[in-house]
Amino acid sequence: MSTEPPDVLEPVLILASASPRRAALLMQIGVPHYVLPANIDERRAEGEPPEQCVLRLAQQKALQVQAAAKPVALAACLLPVLGADTAVIVDGQMLGKPRDRAEALAMLARLSGRAHQVLSAVVLASGSVVRSALSRSEVYLRPLSSAECEAYWDSGEPRDKAGGYAIQGHGAVFVEQLCGSYSGVMGLPLFETALLLSAAGVPIWGGLAASEP
Hints:
By secondary structure, the protein is α/β, with parallel strands linked by helices. It has a single domain (14-199), classed as Maf protein, CATH 3.90.950.10. The chain has six helices and seven strands. Strands 1, 2, 3, 4, 5, 6 and 7 form a seven-stranded mixed β-sheet that branches. Strand 1 (14-15), helix 1 (20-28) and strand 2 form a beta-alpha-beta unit. Helix 3 (101-111) crosses helix 4. The longest helix is centred in the first third of the chain and has 20 residues, at 50-69. The protein is globular and about 50 Å long. The chain starts with 13 loop residues before the first strand and ends in a 14-residue tail after the last helix. The model is unreliable at 1-7 (pLDDT under 50).
């Protein structure tokens, strides 16, 4: 039996995010990549529409990492950089990651028994070309009791999640309806991402290009 390690696919992309969820979603569609997280101010500008905000932040992440990667020998040539940003919107207000237990419980109470919107922007910087796409989804959470919200906080899951819940984790039991992109609610809309990659000549599935619908 051979003891040689299995072949590892050469990265074709740089992901400008430390999110393990986004990295897992990229690997789900067969896109090996480097991870080089961006470090930007993610606050919403005063009066800025939510759609514009997530697109701006995703672009800033991609461009910052693209600039930072130039002097770094990550690969034989410069790779495209993918940035993404996701926001939960309710009553026109963007809900970010909860700062503490009280804020997480307040967020869950606000989302309980009603619909909210999830916006996920994705931006691909390839050389001097910057491409972007926006995914919109509507999520309806069933009514939540105070006890289960407290138990959910104690699980540790809400701490780094926009809106205080994770559709791919324990929080899935709260989601009664979803209209839109499941992967977009997770943080990286794969349909839109694949089209951007294809337009830039970045293969998915280890070599196949996505096609326009």
